[in-house]
Design brief:
Layout: H1 6-22, H2 29-35, H3 40-44, H4 50-70, H5 80-97, H6 100-105, H7 115-141, H8 151-171, H9 178-193
Helix pairs in contact: 1-2, 1-4, 4-7, 5-7, 5-9, 7-8, 8-9
Length: 195
């Protein structure tokens, strides 16, 4: 896990806000330096390039997700369905608190030609998939979830449904209720799999 200085975090957050407001194509070292009132050479002391800023931002977000999910307090009696709801609610609440993050994480099509960035997005997606798939496997093993579909298929359905909900929220310019809409999608899928 990489450690970031307070100044690097400030730069990454400013970059995220520029991406959210003006699009990733308008993120330049020049606009970023101007935005945080630094000279370009001063900014280069913290990051070597725009790509390094984006990679660091994705790494920071990945670490934040992992730490947040691992710190959710579960009782031993907590059902797998309730654990899954807590994980998704935590993620959706993060998007609501920092909607600019969505513009970065969902920019994987732009990162397509930058292997280090697309690999980092892939790491984030794989990490989230692993949490969901492990939850489903555990629920199927303990008899809480039915086994009509495999864990991989259910994981794809769940993440795809939530991803579509987040995208619709972004396209509505964050006016819809992401927590409510995400909860509705998750509850609907859980109704199909909880015994």
């Amino acid at each position: 896990m990489q450690k970031f200085t307070d100044r690097q975090i400030e730069i990454m957050e400013a970059a995220t806000n520029i991406i959210s407001e003006f699009g990733i194509q308008n993120l330049t070292i020049k606009t970023l330096a101007k935005n945080i009132k630094l000279s370009e050479p001063a900014l280069y002391r913290h990051f070597k390039s725009k790509n390094q800023i984006l990679w660091s931002l994705l790494e920071y977000f990945k670490t934040e997700i992992e730490n947040r999910i691992q710190s959710i307090p579960f009782e031993t009696s907590t059902s797998e369905a309730d654990k899954l709801k807590a994980i998704f609610n935590s993620q959706l609440q993060t998007f609501v608190n920092k909607p600019a993050i969505v513009s970065v994480v969902f920019a994987e099509n732009i990162f397509h030609y930058e292997k280090n960035l697309s690999n980092k997005v892939s790491e984030i997606m794989n990490m989230i998939q692993d949490y969901v798939k492990n939850n489903i496997k555990q629920g199927q093993e303990n008899g809480e979830y039915n086994k009509l579909m495999g864990a991989s298929t259910l994981t794809t359905i769940l993440i795809g449904g939530i991803r579509m909900t987040v995208l619709k929220w972004k396209l509505s310019e964050y006016k819809s209720d992401l927590i409510k809409d995400g909860g509705t999608v998750l509850d609907g899928i859980l109704k199909m799999i909880v015994k």
